[in-house]
Write a structure and sequence with these properties.
Blueprint: E1 5-16, H1 22-29, E2 39-50, E3 54-58, H2 65-72, E4 80-85, E5 88-89, E6 102-105, H3 109-112, H4 119-129, H5 138-148, H6 165-177, E7 183-187, H7 195-212, E8 215-219, H8 223-229, E9 232-237, E10 240-246, H9 247-252, H10 257-264, H11 273-278, H12 307-311, E11 317-318, E12 324-325
Helix pairs in contact: 4-5, 4-6, 5-6
This protein binds adenosine-5'-triphosphate, iron/sulfur cluster (SF4) and magnesium ion.
Magnesium ion binds next to helix 2.
């Protein structure tokens, strides 16, 4: 990467331990059916996002995207590893986020907007609290941000329920941007919207990125949306990044068997009859993150799996094609299936 990273994640892992009541513990001790295993949500992830870049993060439901996004945004502490913004830790030794330079936009704007507070007050709250604007100047400040996201500044006096889903997502974006961040973590920001509105919000995010020089970590399970918005894409499977590379190259010639299977399983990417013949769902079930398979976690579903795959976890290594792939096919010892 020629541009230095603004955001970097270094060997980040997150484990969710079960919250056991005393009753659960007693039941477990006498052999009752109580889940005592921890969820391995994110496992040893290292990633860098360059200033001005959009990095897409893709994977099936439950693979750890949102957990990784929350950790990257500093709103959840990792179990181990570190997140840095321009080299400085995002979470301090006290376990709290130390910067407003990373903000988030989530899937459900209604859930993240207080129904009893006007849009104007919602947008002004954070900037006033952090000294970005005075209370006296906040009306004009809020009007500017509403205008920038394509909303009439007079909407500041309205309440969240008076808006459509797309408008609410614009408000959520304006609220994040009013904190003057450098990095925006967007977690499924269009997943709850109609397809036509999705395109408007994606195009708004692209425009804002150009105009404000923002950097995005864009999380989605929608491969089409991610392809449209991202310069690079990271593919996640059961808590790990399995492939990372420039968007077009990764979509046109995926290297990791999971990326290949994921792309082949998406009907909306099918563009011709020959593509249709290629379309096939990924075989098998996603293993539980309570007990990820040993070695390569994809070996239980992989057409190429060999003995090394269940014994040894492949590292995410640079390949000759300018990307990184975590698969023994590229490091020797596993033959490609015919
Ligand atoms: N607060 C939590 N406590 C316990 N387990 C959690 C918690 N948050 C997430 N998990 C578990 O961690 C794993 C990863 O969840 P996460 O929400 O990060 O996945 P995801 O890729 O964002 O999924 P989706 O596409 O459905 O949003 C899942 O097994 C989930 O059940
Ligand atoms: S390491 Fe083995 S099981 Fe994993 S994706 Fe590569 S070939 Fe398949
Ligand atoms: Mg999620």
């Amino acid at each position: 990467m020629s541009v230095p990273p603004i955001l970097s994640l270094d060997a980040v892992s997150k484990r969710f331990d079960p919250r056991l009541t005393l009753g659960d513990r007693i039941a477990a001790a006498i052999g009752g059916d109580v889940e005592t295993r921890a969820v391995q949500a994110v496992r040893d992830v290292s990633l860098s996002v360059a200033k001005g870049e959009t990095l897409g993060l893709v994977g099936e439901s439950g693979c750890g995207k949102s957990t990784l996004g929350r950790i990257a945004a500093g709103i959840m502490a990792p179990t181990s590893g570190a997140v840095r913004l321009d080299g400085e830790p995002v979470i301090g030794a006290d376990g709290r986020k130390h910067t407003t330079r990373i903000q988030t936009v989530f899937q459900d704007p209604f859930a993240s907007l207080n129904p009893r507070i006007t849009v104007g007050d919602t947008l002004a709250e954070g900037p006033i609290a952090h000294g970005l604007v005075t209370a006296g100047a906040s009306r004009a400040y809020v009007a500017e941000w509403l205008d920038l996201v394509g909303l009439d500044p007079s909407y500041a006096s309205r309440y969240p329920h008076q808006f459509s889903g797309g408008q609410r997502q614009r408000i959520a974006i304006a609220r994040a941007l009013a904190m003057k961040p450098d990095v925006l973590v967007c977690d499924e920001p269009v997943a709850s919207l109609d397809v036509s509105i999705q395109a408007q919000i994606v195009n708004l995010l692209l425009k804002l990125k150009r105009e404000l020089g923002l950097t995005y970590l864009f999380i989605s399970h929608d491969l089409g949306v991610v392809r449209h918005i991202s310069e690079r894409v990271a593919i996640m499977y059961l808590g790990r990044i399995v492939e990372l590379g420039p968007t077009l190259r990764l979509y046109e010639s995926p290297e990791h068997p999971y990326t290949q299977a994921l792309l082949a399983s998406v009907p909306r990417l099918v563009t011709s009859d020959s593509d249709l013949a290629e379309f096939r769902p990924i075989a098998g079930e996603i293993p539980s993150p309570l007990a990820p398979p040993p070695g390569c976690a994809f070996h239980t579903r992989c057409l190429h799996a060999g003995p090394r795959c269940s014994a040894e976890s492949p590292a995410l290594l640079a390949t000759r094609t300018g990307r990184a792939t975590a698969c023994h096919l590229y490091t020797g010892g596993v033959e490609k299936a015919a």
